[in-house]
């Protein structure tokens, strides 16, 4: 997990994924399969990508009653992904059920996937949280609260913005994973993201892994773009 750059495969189907991955050749990557791709292609897309040696973050953000999340995670565990997630807003009991489901579905002798909780989506602003979610505290406080809840539930880390990573690590310890989307180069379009940060900022904030989607997937030269992102993220020439 440490210092990974996870590419968000926000594509509609496997043909688009194959076209995107073609220029990377045999390079083994850390790939995120989210709702768009999974709902179209189902579990077989995960199996296909794993057979090619890629690590997988299955980003389905489960949020339901504990019993349902238990059953869903038990099934998802059989895909043997590296990382899965839930929404912390589902509560501590739901997060514990997610872990129990993962353990129940993981074959004996295998390590269960890491499980992390979304705190506040990186597309959420302070104003939106206060006015729409009616949470009358600062966004940073809300993120820290959800991170503590996730830690108490036994989860391995959280999804947050790079801006919150230092305070989360201060509160929960450095081994608690912070996975951060909303990463942009200075010149990139922010789009629908609200809490954005550059890869350099994320590195200096001790972020465990960054998630990069459109800046790479919509690039005219994705393999070259990936190299540039890796340089910016790691701070060295690969
Ligand atoms: O809080 C969150 C949780 C998940 N995401 C996901 O990350 C990528 C970001 O894509 P970009 O194109 O780099 O903006 C996308 O798949 C989201 O579903 C997030 O952005 N924020």
Automatic annotation (TrEMBL):
Coiled-coil spans in chain: none
GO molecular function, one term: orotidine-5'-phosphate decarboxylase activity
One of the Pfam families matching this protein, by short name: OMPdecase
Pathway: Pyrimidine metabolism; UMP biosynthesis via de novo pathway; UMP from orotate: step 2/2
EC number(s) given by UniProt: 4.1.1.23
Database matches in SUPFAM superfamilies: Ribulose-phoshate binding barrel (SSF51366)
Gene of this entry: pyrF
Keyword Lyase annotated: yes
Catalytic residues identified in the record: 61 (proton donor)
Residues reported in the UniProt entry to bind substrate: 10, 32, 59-68, 122, 184, 193, 213-214
Homology family: Belongs to the OMP decarboxylase family. Type 1 subfamily.
Catalytic activity: orotidine 5'-phosphate + H(+) = UMP + CO2
Keywords associated with the record: Decarboxylase, Lyase, Pyrimidine biosynthesis
InterPro entries in UniProt: Aldolase_TIM, OMPdecase, OMPdecase_AS, OMPdecase_bac, OMPdeCOase_dom, RibuloseP-bd_barrel
Limits of the Orotidine 5'-phosphate decarboxylase domain: 4-229
Function description: Catalyzes the decarboxylation of orotidine 5'-monophosphate (OMP) to uridine 5'-monophosphate (UMP).
Quaternary structure and interacting proteins, as annotated: Homodimer.
UniProt name for this protein: Orotidine 5'-phosphate decarboxylase
Organism in which the protein naturally occurs: Neobacillus rhizosphaerae
